[in-house]
Amino acid sequence: MKHLKYDDLVYRCEVLPNFQNTSEIQALSGFIGQDRAKKAVERAIKLKEKGFNIFVVGLSGTGRRTFTTSFLREKARQMCTPNDWVYVYNFSHPSEPIAIPLEAGGARRFKSDMSRLADESMEALEKLFEAEEYAAKKAELEDRYSKIKSQLWEELKEKAKQLGFSVQLTPTGVVTIPLRDGKPLTPEAFESLSDEIKEMFNENSRKLKHIIEGTLYKSRKVEREYKEKLGELDKYAALFTVGAIFDEVKSKYEGNLNVVRYLDQVKSDMLNNLTNLRSENEETRSAYKRRYSVNVVVDNSELTGAPVVYERNPTYSNLVGKVEYQSRAGMLFTDFTLIRAGALHKANGGFLILDAEHLLRNPYSWECLKRALLSEEITVENLESVLGVSNIISLRPQPIPFSAKVVLISTPRIYYLLYTLDEDFRKLFKIKSEFDWELSLTEENVEQYLRFISSNCRKFTPSSLDRAAVNRILWYSSRLAGSKEKLSMQLGEISGLIRESCSIASDSGANIVSETHVLQAIAAIEDRVSLVQSKYDTQIRNFDLMIETQGRKVGQVNGLTVLDLADHSFGVPVKITTKTHLGKPGVVDIQRAAQLSGKIHGKAVMILEGFFGERYARNVPLTLSASISFEQTYGIIEGDSASLAETIALISALSGVPVRQDIAITGSINQHGEVQPVGGVTEKVEGFHRACSLRGLTGSQGVILPSANAKNLILKEEVLESIKKGKFHIWTVENVDEALKIVTGREAGKMTKRGSYRKGSINYLVVEALKKAREISQDHKKTRKTKKRKTDASQN
User: Fold this and answer.
1) Could you count the other beta carbons within 10 Å of the beta carbon of residue 730?
2) CA-angle at 645, arms to 639 and 647, nearest 5°
3) What is the DSSP secondary structure assignment for residue 23, as one 8-state letter?
4) Which of 321, 416, 558, 601 could form an S-S bond across to 342 if both were Cys, CB 3.0 to 4.6 Å?
């Protein structure tokens, strides 16, 4: 047992170096601590095999995102810059655009080269077909085939004349007219001819029909041959015209077989569509220019090293990309130029950072990411197509190989849920990088922490903190960590405190931030989130919460609880009462019976029963029934930190020894009666001090807590001031007996070799109470048996 003094409780950073203000301290260039997390990330970078992606685990505010992003960017600058990627038209299967990789910066050049190639080629072709040389060769070809067709026509007319017919070529076809003495016969004249002559004309007409069909076949054949020769002429002339243009571009990309193959396909397509390229319809010409364009989906031209992409909104389309549509005349249209890259494309060859919770909140994003990691390729496919809910025919772009490291960032809860529920998760994220929430208070770590403070305050005005202000920030950091031996790694909270302290100092016209400004900032931060605490304080002041802070009572103890509201936690005293009576042996936890108790608290009550059995029921059975209640509590009671207070209240109820109401108790016990450390002791002490202050400090009030928790006490100035003046006290204990002595003023009493306790001690009184209860119970049983025998005898 120890009565803590003011000097025991004042916060001191023994390893704080000598300086006057933070302007003397070098700013931090890297990060504080987190060596474990850093080593894990470094190992993952070295492991190139599939599945060694990273899951960064840590509490919010520990610098997970900032550290991970900055560290990966530093490493990425030392890595090779990955390829650019483009999509081009697929001439064989237009709905399946082709993906082509190019060296970093090559995609932009290739797009420019192809745009220039299309413009120059179409311009050269236009000039070609307007040139006199081409016109002359075309006219020569036309004359040759016109003569052949004329000769066929003359031969037809001669054969028709021999058969007694003339032929005329009309828009509707070839018309035959019978001749008589070299003159055309009218229908009337033909009808006046003899049947024999008519039959002759009919026979010759049938012969002439076959001759005409043969001539027309030969004419069409000649026409086709003419078009083929004209096409060959056009292709030859076009090839000669654009060949040099293509050769120039091909020479720049001769090392990229995909580009060379694509250029050959473009040239072939141009030669096969010369008519459309010569069209006067600008829309047709623009369509072909679009066909020969290049869609750059990944451009690393301005990148140094590998990419580091932090996707803050990991929707399905933001990850894998999408195919967009344009509306034309009420219809949807798309092509390869409307393929858009996602974060997977942009991070390819580098690092992709995602918030795991955001990823899981977006439908199908997690499945999309797993599919890319497992297949090691990125397939651009709209979500509606994946789900099969769209009837629109869309593109199926060629997949792009994927080789980036994916980094997920989240809390431990999300990590363990994924690890437990998703088998693929274990295969894909084999590296766990854990961020610590606290830092040991060593000389080296304090030096780094000071550099962090210095670098933060330089962003604001005033840009410097004096030594006392820095010490107060370290006090606040240790308070967040819950230990004098630790500093909090919730760096976001510390940065916010520095920012607000600088603002307060600036408003007051100070040139340097002092401890007063930091204290004002801390008070302002707490004031914004302490509305519920103030309501509890009002209830304590008005005795609506019936907490006793003076006097003594039997079976009643002040326990301490912590209300955690996420953004603010504070201590509140609670009255714990116990009652004993004859009945079924055991301890009834009223909270548990009312289903207002958690499992840990239920376990603590069972440990309490074990302690009582070991201490008091070796020779005397537990014949009493006891009930324990947390008065005026209407929520779930969880934890074992009240088990010491419950034990003392129960011992008081059994022994009849009153307990001091000006003392609150916290701590858990084991079955040996040893007091174990608990959490939230700072908030608990301050909560009871606040209650005593509201009711009036008497000088005897205080708190009992486990000895192991002394290092966790980082108290506010008003509490320390009360302790310094002797108006408030803190005792630490190691076992139940020490706590009993403080709250009762009497020795608990040690067990003798005979298994009994010294007469007059508290333990002795408890045993005597149990003996008396046993005697009463036995007398009651005898009385019932006597009554039963008399009843049976009278009935017989």
Assistant:
1) 24
2) 100
3) G
4) 321
CA distance 720 to 248: 84
Q: Which amino acid is at 332?
A: L
Q: What is the DSSP string of 494-514?
A: HHHHHHHHHHHHHHTT-SSB-
pTM (global) more than 0.70: yes
Confirm if 515 and 475 have CB atoms less than 8 A apart: no
In the chain, what are the helix, strand and coil shares in percent, each to the nearest 5?
Answer: 50, 20, 30
134, 153, 109, 480: which is closest to 274 by C-alpha?
A: 134
Cα distances (angstroms) measured from residue 45 to each of 54, 58, 63: 9, 20, 20
How would residue 323 be classed by pLDDT, with cut points 50, 70 and 90?
very high
CA distance 778 to 772: 10
* Cβ pair 494, 473 in contact under 8 A: yes
Alpha-carbon distance 614 to 153, whole Å? 129
Provide the percentage of residues in the chain whose pLDDT is more than 70.
Answer: 95
Q: Which two tokens stand for residue 435?
A: 């961020």
pLDDT grade for 591, boundaries at 50, 70 and 90: low
| φ, ψ (nearest 5 deg) of residue 462 | -60, 155
Residue 16 half-sphere exposure, CB side, CA atoms within 13 Å? Answer: 20
Which fold does the domain 34-81+305-435 belong to in CATH? Rossmann fold (3.40.50)
Show me where the domains of the chain are located. 2-28+437-529, 34-81+305-435, 82-302, 535-772
Domain 535-772 of CATH type 3.30.230.10 = yes
At residue 592 the predicted structure's pLDDT band, cuts being 50, 70 and 90, is low
Q: Which CATH architecture has domain 2-28+437-529?
A: Orthogonal Bundle (1.10)
